[in-house]
Each structure stands twice: as C-alpha cells, then as structure tokens.
C-alpha cells in the first residue's frame, strides 16, 4: 500500500460519525460564544447598571482583541495540537485552554463587576483562552469532516455562535437580575464545562501526522494562492454583509422601538432565525453550492438595506415592518456565513488547518471592526438613509464579484 493510500485510510478512520462530530464541536462553539456574549452584551449592561462610565465600558470591550489577532499565535497552537510526526492532541489542547477559560470566569465571579482593573485582566484571560480554543477547534473540524459534510461543520459553528450569544448575553442577565452577579457568573462557568463535556469525553481516534508534514507557519499559509484569494473573498463578503450592521440597533431605537421590543427581537427572533439559517445551511449547501448561496444572500442583504434606507428617508412609522426587515437580515446573515466558511474549509490545508482557518476568521474580525468604525463615523455625519443606501450598493457590487471567485476556484 502506498504512503498516500495509507494516509487516506487513516484520515478516513479519524473522521467520526457526522452527528457525533456536530454535537461535540457544536458544544465547543456554543461555549466560546457564551464568553463573547458575556463580554459584548451582558457585562456592559451590568457595568452600566452599577454606575460605570461609557469610557470604562468601552475600555473593557478591548478584551475581545485576541479574536482579531489570534492568527499571530495560531502556528504555535497547531504545532502543539498536531505535532510533527506525532499523534494529534485536539482534546488535550482544548482541555488545557478550556481550564484557563473556566478559571477566568470563576475569577470574574469572585472579583465582581465594579473592580475594573482585575475584571479586565480576568476577561482578557477568558477571551484569549476562548480564541485559542477556537484555533484548535477549527483545525480539528477541518481534519474531521469530509468535504460533503462541511456545511454541517459550519452550521455548528454559526449556530453555536447564535446560541452562545443568547446564553451569555440573555440568560446571563436574567440570572443576574434574580440571583445576583456571583451566582449567575458561576452558572456560566458551569455551563462552559457542560458544553465542552461531549467533545472532551468522546474517544479521539486521532492518528499520527505525516512525518514529512511541513512545520505550521503563517508564511506557509500565505505562500498558497488559495489562501490569499480566500482572504480577499472574506474581506469582500464581510464588507457586503456586515458593514452596516452596527447602525441597525441604534436605528431601531431612533425609529421608536422600545428596548423591550428590541431585546425580545434579539433574544428570541434573531436567535431562532440565526439557528434556522445555520442548520438549514448545511442542507442547502449540499444541493446548490456555497457560491450560489453567497450570491443569493448578498442579493437579499441589498434588498434589506434598501428597505431600511426607504424607511429612514421617509421617516415612516412602521415598527412591524422594521422588525420583519431586521429578522430577514438575521436569517440571511447566518445562512451566508455558513456558505462562506464551508468554502473556506476547503481551502485550508490538512497540514495546518488551524492556522489557515484562523487567518480567515481574523480577516473577518478585522474587516468587521474597521467597517463598523467607518459606518459609525459616517452615520453621525450622513444619516441612516445615506449609509443604508451605500451598504445596498456595496452588497450589489460584491455580489457581482462572487462568481469570479467561483470560476477561479474551478479553474
């Protein structure tokens, strides 16, 4: 038997049943997003209620920066997780950094929401650990899912993000309201352990990496044209889909929707549609392909932005219509990103899957942050209608470029 055939059989044996993989990885993705929901949504609300200034709240949100720059330490994580000629250690890597994440959340419970300095340090440790787990988790997913099943992997990733955000940014606040900061935060720590358990307690079935596998590095990734074109694809798609999302929440408030209505919309409607879009994406991708889904979702996003622009320009009093438009955007966003990351999975090398996929995610995060900053600046000066109209034009422009990536990949 040839070495290539032997490696193929070993990889085939390493790929477990799809349902088991989806449950295990889905739990990890939910757990990571629980931490993100606590930082992004839960903690700012608690701090504000405790009398913190907006400057203090903005300062602690810097703890999410590890997610933008995790590509810098991704090669080191992958060299530990998948050592040269050694057995893959996905569970060991995730258990190690998961312990740091849980410990940091427990520390937050003991510190309290008013001690800004220690709380920032603890949340930075939690964020760094969570981002590092994501590197190992993505590498394991690329290795474990066959090409035809990658839509399910990305459904677990995107759906997990929605569900985790609902827990960390919704349930967390409800628990604080009833039980207080410390018990609620300790419940979040326990939730992280419970969510990771299905993955950590399942036999790994890992195989040794090839002896001739090149060392994992950013340089190795950027040498490959499919990675460079994948980074361009991420940047363009994120600009077309996400750049205006920062303005939607403030626009709904200014349009007269109550905080209760917006909270219910986010907690129930957006989460339900996001999960439906994510889970439906795995089924749809197997039938029509990632690039067609991306093109369609960009077209829907263009219509959504035009609808927001019309409502803003005419100053219409249409709360029900606004909520419907917002929900359409949420479902479309989830479906589109399942398609995008399914395509990107195919570009990641099995020799350094975590490094390659982390580069794509970091590009997503960095472009999102820059785009939101520009959108916020333009929104203050040009108004909602102009910004939403510009976002619609941008989505249309990106949708015309997507087929070029499909043709280039096919060639």
From TrEMBL:
The entry's keywords: Membrane, Transmembrane, Transmembrane helix, Transport
Domain of life from the UniProt record: Bacteria
One Pfam family matching this protein: MFS_1
Transmembrane segments: 25-45, 57-74, 94-116, 186-209, 230-253, 259-281, 293-314, 320-341, 381-402
Locations listed in the record: Membrane
Signal peptide start-end: none
Family matches, as Gene3D superfamilies: MFS general substrate transporter like domains
Membrane topology, record value: Multi-pass membrane protein
Keyword Transmembrane helix: yes
Descriptive protein name: MFS transporter
InterPro entries xrefs: AmpG_permease/AT-1, MFS, MFS_trans_sf
Similarity comment: family membership: Belongs to the major facilitator superfamily.
């Amino acid at each position: 038997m040839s070495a290539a055939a032997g490696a193929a059989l070993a990889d085939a044996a390493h790929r477990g049943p799809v349902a088991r993989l989806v449950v295990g990885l889905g739990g990890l993705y939910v757990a990571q997003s629980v931490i993100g929901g606590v930082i992004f949504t839960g903690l700012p609300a608690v701090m504000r209620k405790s009398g913190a200034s907006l400057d203090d709240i903005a300062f602690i949100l810097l703890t999410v920066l590890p997610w933008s720059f995790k590509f810098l330490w991704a090669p080191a994580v992958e060299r530990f997780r998948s050592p040269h000629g050694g057995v893959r250690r996905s569970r060991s890597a995730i258990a190690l950094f998961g312990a740091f994440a849980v410990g940091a959340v427990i520390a937050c419970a003991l510190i309290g929401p008013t001690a800004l300095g220690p709380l920032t340090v603890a949340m930075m440790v939690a964020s760094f650990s969570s981002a590092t787990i994501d590197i190992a988790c993505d590498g394991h997913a690329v290795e474990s899912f066959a090409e035809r099943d990658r839509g399910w992997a990305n459904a677990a990733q995107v759906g997990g993000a929605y569900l985790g955000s609902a827990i960390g940014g919704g349930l967390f606040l409800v628990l604080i309201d009833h039980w207080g900061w410390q018990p609620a935060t300790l419940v979040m720590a326990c939730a992280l352990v419970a969510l990771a358990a299905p993955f950590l307690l399942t036999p790994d079935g890992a195989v040794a990496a090839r002896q001739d596998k090149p060392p994992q590095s950013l340089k190795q990734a950027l040498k490959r044209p499919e990675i460079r074109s994948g980074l361009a694809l991420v940047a363009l798609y994120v600009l077309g889909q996400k750049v205006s999302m920062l303005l939607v929440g403030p626009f709904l408030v200014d349009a007269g929707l109550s905080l209760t209505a917006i909270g219910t919309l986010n907690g129930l409607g957006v989460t339900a549609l996001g999960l439906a879009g994510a889970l439906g994406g795995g089924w749809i991708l197997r039938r029509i392909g990632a690039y067609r889904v991306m093109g369609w979702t960009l077209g829907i996003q263009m219509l959504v932005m035009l609808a927001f622009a019309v409502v803003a320009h005419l100053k219409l009093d249409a709360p029900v219509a606004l909520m419907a438009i917002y929900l359409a955007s949420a479902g479309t966003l989830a479906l589109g990103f399942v398609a995008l990351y399914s395509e990107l999975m195919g570009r990641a090398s099995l020799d350094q899957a975590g490094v390659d996929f982390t580069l794509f995610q970091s590009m997503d995060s960095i472009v999102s942050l820059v785009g939101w900053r520009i959108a916020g600046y333009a929104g203050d000066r040009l108004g909602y209608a102009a910004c939403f109209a510009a976002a619609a034009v941008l989505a249309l422009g990106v949708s015309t470029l997507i087929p070029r990536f499909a043709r280039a990949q096919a060639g």
